[in-house]
């Protein structure tokens, strides 16, 4: 019996644009979008002590994840930044990971999909209270589901990953239709719409289908128009399902499965060629750390939307009775204390991004072995956020005094509990 090692861990094992502070973020068509002020990014590297803390934390996380490589960015606008590649691109390889290499960002796609929705709301093309069934009349199982439900984790839909992950890993180039993914998730329905928090990937797949139906455009066109172009994300795309290679084809990615209860660490699947269709508008985007940083900061500040629409993403809801009170869900993303963030996994990659809308502190993490699950990447991002939050201000700047409800030590301990293939 082949069994997938459990991926997500959303409980305690969770969790500035570079250059000028004034940035006009406008849509590429139609009325200009809002002009916002983002925190100016201090030039230069972070202090040497903080740099060593980051390097040591990444090395530890790579070992715990059995990942040969990683890309990690830490931006503290009041102090400096660090963006590095770590390790090598493949197991037993010699090609070093470069910080500008593109990778699959997993569920960090979700806030991008919700950004398209909010932009269309601003343009009056859809409403958050619209029934999804009105746009997909031939799709069953949509009774009572609104656009808002899909981005707040309250659609009631079950997830498709539990049933399909093993197939994804063993057949990474297979092309899936969004309907196949939706039908599997719909068949594992979790609750009635609006009843409970259940952030299944299925809801974001359904959202992509509905937005395409509402606009008559493909989702990559919508991402380009409302997210990638306005934010300047020129290395980001939702690839064609048939285009399975990464732009940086030297970057490999791995996942090991359990066979008869034993993790096959010595024979992980190479997921370097993988169809975006298995994640679609939930987890299909390919991007870089610099692009994810730019989006994370723009999204956290609401820079892409009019004020009333931006206020929607500030509203939060609990994620479960056992979660800490500082762990909430907003609109397409989690809120961990003051930071907005998301963690993701697709076969071969685990990723995380965190951003503080006030100070601009932003963390982006990628490791190229997904066996340990997305929780490990998120724990690493939170560990790095703890280090960076304490960095003193560069000359002429003022430190924000960020108070995070976790410590770097707690997150390092949590990473150790997720270790695989040791």
TrEMBL record:
<dbReference type="InterPro" id="IPR050491">
    <property type="entry name" value="AmpC-like"/>
</dbReference>
<dbReference type="Pfam" id="PF00144">
    <property type="entry name" value="Beta-lactamase"/>
</dbReference>
<keyword id="KW-0121">Carboxypeptidase</keyword>
<dbReference type="InterPro" id="IPR001466">
    <property type="entry name" value="Beta-lactam-related"/>
</dbReference>
<keyword id="KW-0378">Hydrolase</keyword>
<protein>
    <submittedName>
        <fullName>D-alanyl-D-alanine carboxypeptidase</fullName>
    </submittedName>
</protein>
<feature type="domain" description="Beta-lactamase-related">
    <location>
        <begin position="54"/>
        <end position="374"/>
    </location>
</feature>
<dbReference type="GO" id="GO:0004180">
    <property type="term" value="F:carboxypeptidase activity"/>
</dbReference>
<keyword id="KW-0645">Protease</keyword>
<dbReference type="InterPro" id="IPR012338">
    <property type="entry name" value="Beta-lactam/transpept-like"/>
</dbReference>
């Amino acid at each position: 019996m082949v069994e997938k090692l459990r991926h997500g861990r959303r409980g305690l094992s969770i969790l500035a644009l570079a250059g000028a502070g004034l940035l006009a973020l406008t849509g590429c068509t139609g009325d200009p979008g809002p002009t916002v002020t983002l925190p100016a990014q201090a030039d230069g590297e972070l202090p040497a002590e903080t740099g060593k803390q980051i390097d040591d934390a990444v090395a530890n996380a790579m070992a715990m994840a059995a990942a040969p490589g990683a890309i990690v960015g830490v931006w503290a606008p009041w102090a400096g930044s660090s963006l590095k590649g770590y390790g090598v691109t493949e197991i037993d390889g010699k090609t070093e990971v470069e910080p500008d290499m593109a990778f699959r960002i997993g569920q960090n796609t979700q806030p991008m999909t919700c950004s398209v929705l909010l932009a269309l709301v601003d343009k009056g093309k859809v409403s958050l209270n619209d029934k999804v069934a009105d746009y997909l009349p031939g799709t069953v199982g949509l009774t009572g589901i609104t656009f808002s439900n899909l981005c707040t984790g309250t659609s009631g839909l079950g997830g498709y990953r539990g049933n399909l992950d093993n197939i994804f890993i063993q057949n990474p180039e297979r092309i899936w239709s969004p309907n196949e993914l939706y039908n599997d998730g719909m068949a594992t329905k979790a609750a009635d719409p609006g009843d409970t928090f259940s952030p299944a990937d299925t809801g974001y797949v359904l959202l992509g289908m509905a937005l395409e139906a509402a606009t008559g455009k493909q989702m990559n066109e919508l991402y380009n128009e409302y997210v990638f172009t306005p934010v300047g994300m020129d290395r980001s795309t939702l690839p064609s399902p048939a285009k399975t290679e990464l732009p940086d084809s030297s970057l490999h990615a791995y996942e090991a499965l359990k066979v008869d209860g034993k993790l096959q660490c010595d024979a992980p699947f190479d997921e370097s060629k993988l169809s975006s269709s298995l994640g679609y508008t939930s987890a299909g985007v390919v991007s870089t750390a610099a692009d994810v940083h730019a989006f994370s900061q723009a999204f956290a500040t609401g820079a892409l939307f009019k004020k009333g629409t931006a206020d929607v993403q500030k509203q939060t809801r609990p994620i479960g009775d056992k979660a800490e009170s500082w762990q909430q869900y907003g609109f397409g993303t989690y809120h961990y204390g003051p930071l907005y963030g998301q963690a993701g996994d697709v076969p071969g990659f685990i990723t995380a991004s965190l951003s503080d809308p006030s100070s601009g502190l932003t963390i982006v993490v990628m490791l190229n072995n997904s066996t340990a699950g997305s929780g490990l990447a998120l724990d690493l991002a939170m560990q790095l956020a703890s280090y960076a939050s304490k960095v003193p201000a560069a000359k002429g700047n003022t430190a924000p005094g960020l108070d995070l409800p976790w410590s770097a030590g707690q997150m390092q301990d949590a990473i150790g509990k997720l270790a695989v293939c040791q």
